[in-house]
UniProtKB/TrEMBL annotation:
Domain of life assignment: Bacteria
Matching InterPro entries: AsnC-type_HTH_dom, Dimeric_a/b-barrel, Tscrpt_reg_AsnC-like, Tscrpt_reg_AsnC/Lrp_C, WH-like_DNA-bd_sf, WH_DNA-bd_sf
Record protein name field: Lrp/AsnC family transcriptional regulator
Domain HTH asnC-type span(s) in chain numbering: 4-43
All copies of domain Transcription regulator AsnC/Lrp ligand binding, residue ranges: 74-140
Keywords tagged on the record: DNA-binding, Transcription, Transcription regulation
Taxonomic placement: Bacteria, Bacillati, Actinomycetota, Actinomycetes, Mycobacteriales
UniProt xrefs under SMART domains: HTH_ASNC
Pfam families: AsnC_trans_reg, HTH_AsnC-type
PANTHER family linked to this entry: LEUCINE-RESPONSIVE REGULATORY PROTEIN, TRANSCRIPTIONAL REGULATOR AZLB
């Protein structure tokens, strides 16, 4: 894990604003050396700092306007197997392990309620999944974002 600094935050914010900018364009825009920009971007790619581009594609635009969270209670001896099986369900777009009453929080997409019912059934059929609960996402109140944290880092006092 690398720790990002103020210069990294400046470059990343510029990339957020202009995702298709070249290293030369970013360097000019930010008044940085081209090598500085290129070496940092290369390091981020090597260290997998940047998330895959598919995170930016809207499920709605792919024909999946319905989104839901599924909480799943999983037999702990079969947790890794269950995660591997969930990975095979295309409508499972994200899953995280969590503490509390459930073991996994699974974000799914679906074409409509009938499709959601099918996806929920596929999750429940995964070996090790003991029970599930579904909460339909009514609207995205705050979309996934990192810009406010990048802005805080960019604006922080030099250490």
């Amino acid at each position: 894990m690398i720790k990002l600094d103020r210069t990294d935050a400046r470059i990343l914010l510029a990339l957020c604003a202009t995702p298709r900018a070249t290293g030369v364009q970013l360097a000019t825009l930010l008044n940085l050396a081209r090598n500085t920009v290129q070496s940092r971007v290369s390091r981020w790619e090597t260290d997998k700092v940047l998330l895959p581009i598919d995170r930016c594609v809207s499920a709605r635009d792919l024909g999946y306007p319905l989104q839901a969270f599924v909480t799943a209670v999983v037999d702990q001896r079969r947790l890794e197997q269950a995660i591997a099986e969930l990975h095979l369900i295309p409508e499972v777009v994200e899953a995280v392990g969590m503490s509390g009453d459930a073991d996994l929080l699974i974000k799914v997409v679906a074409c409509d309620t009938d499709d959601l019912y099918r996806v929920a059934g596929a999750i429940l059929a995964v070996p090790g999944v003991e029970r599930t609960a579904i909460s339909v996402i009514m609207r995205e109140a705050i979309p996934y974002r990192m810009a406010p944290l990048l802005e805080r880092l960019r604006d922080s006092a030099s250490s």
